[in-house]
Specification:
It is globular, with a radius of gyration of 19 Å. It is about 70% helix and about 0% strand. It is mainly α. The protein is built from 12 helices and no strands.
């Protein structure tokens, strides 16, 4: 199997694991009552730790994919997370996916598919230098801080911040993977250590931000995460790692059109009158009592849409 096919195969399995994790996170977020939100209630929940385990497994598969494929190829494949998560969440909620949800999901995937058509290339061999990595990290943290500033209502802003954090984590992970497997330098060089710390920070930040975003439902926030992630990673790949979009000017136009269609798909998802969070809560209120430290009465549930 050549490197490109291996990267695609690993990305597909990773997307499935990320989808299961996203559904688990959203189901937990929908059961958190007013006044009990925060990190500590989540840490007391087995559902939270299950989602962490699924995210970890998906991340390992994603790291392997980044070893064999460029960011501009691997990251758009994460759109399949949306394909799997929306129907999976609906099934667990005991309902069918609405027509509007299918439409929004389809448009988002078509747009990201156009982006994928412009992305190809050999296995990565370039890495970010320490100054580049630190500059990227500082810039991203500034944007994340702006999007998730105190008082910001949980929803699409947190989803955007999560997507940026995860995309940057992926770009840094590729640098870490290439640097570690390149035997021309020491295993624990300053570059490896610094980038590893940044990867851990952005990965954890992206996870917590997505958990906050899913309080408003699954479809629209996950679509935003799915769109923001490859955008952030691809910008880094093209600007700093020498990756290129295929097809010249035509390829650039196709990528821009794809981004526009995907963005419209996200807008469609935000207009859905039914959210996975609401349906899941209505379908399984008895499951609330199974979350350690979070006794909740069905009538006390607080639901919102992004």
């Amino acid at each position: 199997m050549n490197a490109t096919l291996l990267a695609v195969a690993l990305s597909l399995v990773s997307a499935a694991a990320y989808a299961a994790a996203a559904v688990a996170q959203e189901r937990l977020a929908s059961r958190v009552t007013e006044g009990r939100s925060g990190v500590l209630p989540m840490l007391a929940s087995g559902t939270w730790w299950s989602s962490v385990g699924l995210n970890a497994a998906a991340a390992l598969l994603h790291v392997a994919a980044l070893k064999y494929g460029p960011l501009t190829l691997v990251q758009p494949l994460g759109a399949l997370t949306l394909v799997a998560a929306v129907p999976l969440g609906a099934r667990l909620a005991g309902r069918r996916v609405t027509r509007l949800e299918w439409r929004g999901t389809g448009l988002t995937l078509i747009g990201l598919g156009a982006l994928l058509l412009t992305a190809s290339g050999p296995a990565p061999d370039d890495t970010l230098t320490v100054p580049e990595a630190l500059t990227v990290a500082a810039s991203t943290m500034a944007v994340i801080g702006l999007l998730s500033r105190p008082g910001t209502r949980p929803g699409l802003r947190h989803a955007t911040a999560s997507g940026f954090a995860s995309g940057v984590a992926s770009a840094l992970t590729q640098t870490l993977t290439v640097a570690v497997t390149d035997r021309s330098g020491p295993l624990f060089s300053p570059q490896v250590v610094i980038v590893a710390v940044l990867v851990a920070a952005f990965a954890a930040g992206g996870l917590l931000l997505s958990q906050t975003a899913y309080r408003g439902g699954l479809g629209a926030p996950l679509a935003v995460v799915t769109l923001a992630n490859p955008v952030a990673a691809s910008v880094i790949g093209v600007a700093l790692l020498g990756e290129r979009l295929q097809g010249g000017a035509g390829g650039i136009l196709l990528a821009v059109a794809g981004a526009a269609v995907a963005a419209y798909g996200v807008v469609v998802l935000t207009r859905s009158p039914r959210t996975v969070a609401a349906e899941a809560t209505e379908a399984v209120p008895e499951f609330l009592a199974s979350i350690p430290g979070q006794p909740v009465e069905p009538k006390a549930l607080h639901l919102s849409r992004p």
